[in-house]
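Researcher: I'm preparing a figure for a lab meeting and need a structural model of a single chain. I don't have an experimental structure, so a prediction will have to do for now. The sequence is pasted below. Please return the structure as tokens so I can convert it later.
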Amino acid sequence: MSKLVLLRHGESQWNLENRFTGWVDVPLSPKGELEARAAGQKLAGITFDRAYTSVLKRAIDTLAIVLGVIGQTGLPIEKDKALNERMYGELQGLSKAETAQKYGEQQVKIWRRSYDVPPPGGESLKDTADRVLPYYEQHIRPQILAGKNILIAAHGNSLRALVMQLDQLSREAVLELNIPTGAPLLYEFDKTGNVTGHRYL
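Model: Understood. Here is the structure written out token by token.
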């Protein structure tokens, strides 16, 4: 039985400041580093065969901390921008309050909570899914079918896109989904690649 662990990076400096981060390469906050260590302690009983991460520092550093804690620093790691956070375009760097002031609260709510309406110069959740899911099918799912244990360190929206597929969520349901920072989400699969269960560790 294969295991897949989805891990949103620990709190970043801009999560702390309540800013739209997107593709801006922001480091972990001190709390985020602690969250990554705590995630590693929860994963100590699993031997992984391979890890995947985005090309953004907050996910890469979270993965490095976790692998250090569990003593698997020699693990093969594949980094790809397909796993990057949703690109927020002109909203990147603005706080939630600044964004509401500039564009109006209702418009910001539409961008944040619709499935396929992107912010100016950015991506919708659908756009994010359109790059995450083909990458998963091509690179990660074959590993699961081969019986491997996989760890993915990525971001709130790239992981939401993946959970949407794994849990067969509707567009409406995925908009209510929130993946917390630093909380490992474990999926287990049977030999045919069907999900047999999932839970937060």
